[in-house]
Amino acid sequence: MTVLGWAQIILFCAIVAVLSPILGGYMTRVFNGERTFLSPMLQPLEVGLYRLAGIDVTREQHWLTYAIAMLLFNAGGFLLLYGLMRLQALLPFNPVGQSAVPPDLSFNTAISFVTNTNWQNYGGESTMSYLVQMLGLTSQNFLSAATGIALAMALVRGFARTSARTVGNFWVDVVRCTLYILLPICIPVALFMVWQGIPQTLGGYVDATTLEGAHQTIAVGPVASQVVIKMLGTNGGGFFNANAAHPFENPTALSNFIQMVLIFVLGAAMTNVFGRMVGNQRQGWAILAAMGILFIAGVAVCYWAETNSTTLLNGLGLAGGNMEGKEVRFGIAASALFAVVTTAASCGAVNAMHDSFTALGGMVPLINMELGEIVVGGVGAGLYGMLLFVIVTMFIAGLMVGRTPEYVGKKIEAREVKMAMLSILILPLMMLGWTAVAVVYPPAAASMGNAGPHGFSEVLYAFTSQAANNGSAFAGLTGNTLFYNLTGAITMFLGRFWMIVPAMAIAGALATKKTIAASSGTFPTTGALFVGLLVGVILIVGGLTFFPALALGPIVEHLAMQSGSLF
Q: Which of 21, 153, 202, 244 has its CA 20 to 30 A from that of 566?
């Protein structure tokens, strides 16, 4: 570890912390329907969209209606994207003549992008046409991100409102999020990325002759527009197979740093939105502090693991640390930071191959996802995931003092706790259940690129990434098979929507309750004690659930490496 490496990490954290209240204040005004500096330009377009779609802005929805609207909206997105891929060969903007995407891969990919997972069992430049990349994948990056933020806002309104039967209007929230938040950030940053060297063209692939005289086809396309929203919306799907390690997706150290900030900035700002909406910004800072503690711990372990040479690495001439699978233009510090950022959020973009990380270095991204990606998390999804853990934490705190738990003036009762646990438990069921099936089912086990504990980690990482709607991969697993396409699609669908519906039920229940004034017996939720208890509950739940699986994978692999064995 170096001073320069830690300086990058500290600078990243400082920028995110500074931007959070600024963006949080702006986003709060947007979702409250207040006037912003963009209103004179965008409000006529917003009103026109409502009229075109027949949306009544003044009519809010019950939580169940809100949830149904969200499910129908995403079902429509799935059908559109699936159809585009299956008809790809017949559609325009296909300069290299990409054929139709196979049915099982189309099914997996459509589910993947609708659920904000962006898991890719294909190479983008060799599989998808420009039209599918733009109209299908990039558009869905905007819409799935807007869906996550809208759902988080519904839950926030549940905590903020008193004796209410509604939690907002899904259609209005999606329009405002896309129009006032996502697009205004993406357009200037995409132009910046073009300046950095990312292509943005509808021209065909470029033929070149190398110095050795060999023929080479260089893939280009409308890349910059997809890269920015995949980062900002914590989507992660790469235009190219190598994702953010590809020089056309992430050409410079500056573009790399900006992309990491994009991944975190909206998720961190959502905590400030929560604090503002409930009338106490310290509540938001407390949640962000818990996220920050878990994030810094993960970065420290991952960075240490990748730079700390073992006897075996020294014997291989790698005393300076593990550079396998990393880009020289980024180095170990930026690669380790990116790995933790992208899995702390549900982004899934990678600038280094996690399969090449050391056992403990690769375990950190795995743990981030197993905790439910609530360490900032996906846009919207990170906040409502963390609030589910807050509900469980307050329930435990209430048991300690023998009192009905309260949070921001709302009593937390049996229904909310049951719904929270129902949401939280779907993730380990998908992650561990399908891993257990895959490692004993011969066709699935044959896809593992490595034997022993590392092969087990590849399978565990795949289902963990898909259930957590992350989308990154260890890259040693061959995922484009019928088994992994179908089971992965099921995992992504349940990991997204099984978690969302109970969270919406919680929002509806909380909105109907009256706000209770704090008393001498109220557990304070803005101080160090609450933050420590919240972090402890998250780690205990994760530790008890996933430690046996981690022991079979990265932990035993690390111990074996110390004794001279590689897998």
A: 244
Residue 9: count other Cβ atoms within 10 Å of its Cβ: 21
Is the CB of residue 265 less than 8 Å from the CB of residue 16? yes
What are the CB-based long-range contacts (under 8 Å, 24+) for 277-283?
A: 277/28, 277/156, 277/157, 277/159, 277/160, 278/156, 278/159, 278/160, 278/408, 278/409, 279/160, 280/408, 280/526, 281/21, 282/526, 283/408, 283/525, 283/526
The residue type at 212: E
Q: Mean pLDDT per segment of 10 residues, for the chain of length 567 residues?
A: 88 94 95 92 93 92 94 94 94 90 94 91 88 92 93 93 92 95 95 94 87 86 92 88 91 94 94 93 94 94 84 58 86 92 90 89 92 84 89 86 81 89 90 93 89 90 92 85 93 91 92 83 85 92 87 89 74
Residue partners of 442: CB distance under 8 A and separation at least 6: none
Helices then strands, counting H and E runs in the chain, come out as: 22, 4
208: helix, strand or coil: strand
Element (DSSP H or E) covering residue 418: helix 414-440
Q: Rounded to an integer, what distance in angstroms lies between the CA atom of residue 473 and that of residue 466?
A: 9
Q: How far apart are CA 259 and CA 367, in angstroms?
A: 22
CA count, 13 A, side-chain hemisphere, 502: 21
Distance separating alpha carbons of residues 539 and 393, to the nearest angstrom: 12
8 A C-beta contact, residue 28 and residue 277: yes
pLDDT digits (tens, 9 = 90+) for 334-388: 999 999 999 999 888 999 998 888 889 999 999 999 988 788 888 888 888 899 9
- Beta-bridge partners for 261: none
Query: For residues 259 and 234, is the Cβ–Cβ distance under 8 A?
Result: no
User: Under 8 Å CB-to-CB from 520, ≥6 apart: which residues?
Assistant: none
